[in-house]
Specification:
232 residues; alpha+beta; two-stranded parallel ribbon; 8 strands; globular
């Protein structure tokens, strides 16, 4: 009995120390991780809108809810001009095959998508994960011979389709001859998740700020003095 109690006590002590260690590590790294996430989101907004890296983004929280999440959006301004918006940005969340796909979307003042940037996904490698992968055109021989083309800055082909695509064509198609977003072969669910979440987010944004009116986005949920200002 004595040996049993000592074993139980030792295991309990080990569990306590491990829990304390994990808690301490989380406390130290959480703030750093959150700062990194915010910086990544800020850079994604710039890429999605194709705006200047010095652009200022003002966040507006709304009373609207989309897919169980409070809907919020950002209005982009040039640093020296806070009167004329450059465009808008919001984050879309789509339920994919095995994860929630997080997509930052840029919208110009006419209500047209400028581009998107997928910032998080855990889809099936080699299939759904292609929503975030850049397809290289360099062959092994080109790499070995030193004639490979510099593909730095190249964007995933799936995401490139969204730039300039009208809202009416934000549907998934399986043939390049059809108008819409061409699905990734073998990953229709992931393709649908991104496309649907972007379309629904765009529809909600336009319902709030107005469609193609070229004004400052004033409306029921327009930025107020309480809006959070967020740079890149």
């Amino acid at each position: 009995m004595g040996n049993f109690l000592r074993l139980v006590g030792a295991l309990a002590l080990i569990a306590l120390v491990a829990s304390f260690g994990l808690s301490a590590i989380y406390s130290v790294t959480h703030e750093i991780t959150e700062q990194y996430r915010l910086a990544e989101q800020g850079q994604a907004r710039i890429e999605a809108l194709s705006c200047d890296s010095e652009a200022v983004f003002v966040k507006t929280e709304t009373d609207s809810v989309l897919n169980g999440r409070p809907f919020e959006y950002y209005t982009a301004y040039a640093p020296e001009d806070r009167e004329n918006p450059l465009g808008y940005s919001f984050t879309a969340y789509g339920s994919g095959y095995s994860s929630t796909i997080v997509t930052v979307v840029g919208v110009d003042m006419s209500g047209t998508i400028c581009g998107i940037k997928i910032t998080d996904q855990q889809e099936t490698p080699g299939l759904g994960s292609k929503v975030q992968e850049v397809a290289s055109e360099n062959t092994i021989w080109a790499v070995m011979s030193g004639s490979a083309v510099d593909e730095m800055g190249k964007r995933p082909w799936f995401q490139q389709q969204f730039g300039g695509t009208p809202r009416t064509e934000l549907t998934v198609v399986k043939s390049s001859s059809d108008d819409g977003i061409l699905a990734i072969t073998g990953a229709t669910i992931s393709s649908e998740a991104v496309t649907r979440s972007v379309r629904e987010g765009l529809e909600m944004l336009l319902a709030i700020v107005g469609e193609g009116d070229g004004d400052d986005g004033a409306g029921e949920d327009a930025p107020t003095d309480d809006s959070e200002e967020a740079g890149s």
